[in-house]
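Protein modeling request. Please complete all fields; requests missing the sequence field cannot be processed.
Requester role: graduate student
Desired output: 3D structure, token encoding
Chains: 1
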Amino acid sequence: MRILPRTTCVILSCLLMGNSFAQTPAAVPAPPSGSSPARADGVLKTVALIMGEPNYSVDSAYQELEEGFYSQPELLPGDRMFAPISEIVVNLGGEVQLDTAQQAGTFSLAGKTLRLQAGQLNALLDGKPVQTDIAPQWRNGNLWVSLYWVFDQFGAYTKWDKTRQRFTASLVLPVSKKIASLAKGGPVTERTLLTQTPDFWASAEGTKVADVVLGYQNSDGGWPKLENDTNLTIPVNRSALTGFKSKSTIDNDATTKQIVVLARAYQATRQERFRNGVDKGLDYLMAAQLPNGGWQQNWPNPLGYKARITFNDDAMANVLEVLRDVASLSRDFSFVTSVQARRAHAAYDAGIALILKAQIRVAGKKTGWGGQYDENTLQPAMGRAFELASISGGESVNVVRFLMSIEKPSAEVQQAVQDAVAWLDSAKITGVKRVRKEDRTLEYGFDFVMENTGGSDVTWARFYALETGRPLFAARDSKPRAHFEDVSYERRVKYNWYTSEAATLLSTDYPAWIKRQGLKSVLGARR
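Delivered output (527 residues):
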């Protein structure tokens, strides 16, 4: 007896139970039903979207529906989900061509090509006329479509879960470099790039890795963001860096890390191609700085919240640390020109001024910093859908540490540190602890709950409300919550809403800084 793979059994069971769109009102033509995909033909992928959330997932890995925006799918008569599909098709390894003049889109996926036009029921599938169930719409330079109908044309098995308000499409795609994962692991990864020794960069293996780093530098001089476990001993598959994934960014150490690495490779080998990479990278950072002194998460042509000035994940601090080293001709950058050093110094000073200006006040008192700021108004702004405009209990610690790293801080910098430390001390949450509870009945097999310990446990919320200074939570629907337990299950277990970073800052880093600067602690006798 042949035993079918579990995924195939699940799909066959769904087919036997019938399609959940069978309840479609008679006034709306029922879409053709997809057939169960088979693994043998290629790679099985499952796409899912949930009403009220500005995301989609491919095999449970979440992506934004429209990168940088908060677009949410809509539900039309007949339980048909209506949403933009461009990012999804690209992430699945397909091709997308959008025609702004015609308000039309051509989508190629799974060996088929579909052309749709806004306001038109008539479409073309591999050049032959077909008719859609719902006319597409053109919104903000993108084409919104009936997901159920479109995925059916590509041969997917589609399903609507009315209870969860969840649409899924499973389809088999031919093996493609675009959907092939980047090589993982190995002796040198994105995570370990900066830990390599000078001897490594002087070796043949080091030169090989530096060439890989140089190989995925974009023409604008910046670098895209790679996963931390990406193997950098072999060339990066640039075909897999599609859509927003290929764009230059300072998010998650991108660009700043690579500039430092190439500087070290140049110092060790004196090979001009590595210096040229550094020069292009520095030019990128200079060109990307806004007149107000900040840097956006993506540049050039950032969209949505990617255009925000970004403190999150040390983005601003990482840029300023590189510029400080360039300006001071530090060991890594002792080879830069005097012109580069002067430009870096001016950009660094402008960045420090912005940090001081961005410190948030609540009830007249200075507190910490937000994760993102509006690039024009410099007001705290929303990041991802669940990262509301707020004071950050995490990013504020990083900013304070950066300010404390300034060798000769001005009086303004010193006061910013003092105010932020006082706020962090007042914002701590005592006597509670986040605890993991195993539960096999749940989707991920566990949950997180907050338990009263009655002891000396100390933690901080990741976010605090701008108006009240109280802990702030959210989910993918962007609605604020006052309590952790009100967060949706997926976001509760897949995002860290608490941080303990400030504990070491207050107990160790700050006292040492106070001593170096000859200042009085704002923590008084409590420390």
